């Protein structure tokens, strides 16, 4: 989780390392907000990115709670 979360939001590091050929979700959102000023698409990308981050976190938290509950019994 600690590796996955920053890779979704990064837009500066992929551009510095890979140039314009690397295109990640963070860079897409940046371009839509500031270059194309297409705010509805940028908002949809932001919501999608948030869901992509929240769903694994909820699953992880649920599995950890089940593991603790199983250990207590």
From TrEMBL:
<keyword id="KW-0813">Transport</keyword>
<feature type="transmembrane region" description="Helical">
    <location>
        <begin position="39"/>
        <end position="60"/>
    </location>
</feature>
<comment type="similarity">
    <text>Belongs to the binding-protein-dependent transport system permease family. CysTW subfamily.</text>
</comment>
<dbReference type="GO" id="GO:0005886">
    <property type="term" value="C:plasma membrane"/>
</dbReference>
<dbReference type="InterPro" id="IPR035906">
    <property type="entry name" value="MetI-like_sf"/>
</dbReference>
<protein>
    <submittedName>
        <fullName>Binding-protein-dependent transport systems inner membrane component</fullName>
    </submittedName>
</protein>
<keyword id="KW-0812">Transmembrane</keyword>
<keyword id="KW-0472">Membrane</keyword>
<keyword id="KW-1133">Transmembrane helix</keyword>
<keyword id="KW-1003">Cell membrane</keyword>
